[in-house]
Amino acid sequence: MNTSKMLILATLASLAAAGAHAADAPKGACTLLTQPEIDSITGGKSGAGSAMDQEVPAKSGQPVTVYICMWPVPGIGGQVVISMAPMPPGQTAKSLSQDNAGMKALRDQHYTEEAKDFGQSSCSGMAPPASAKDGLSMTACTAAPNGKLISVTFMSPTKKLSLEQTNDLLNKAIARMH
Question: pTM for this structure?
Answer without folding.
Answer: 0.83
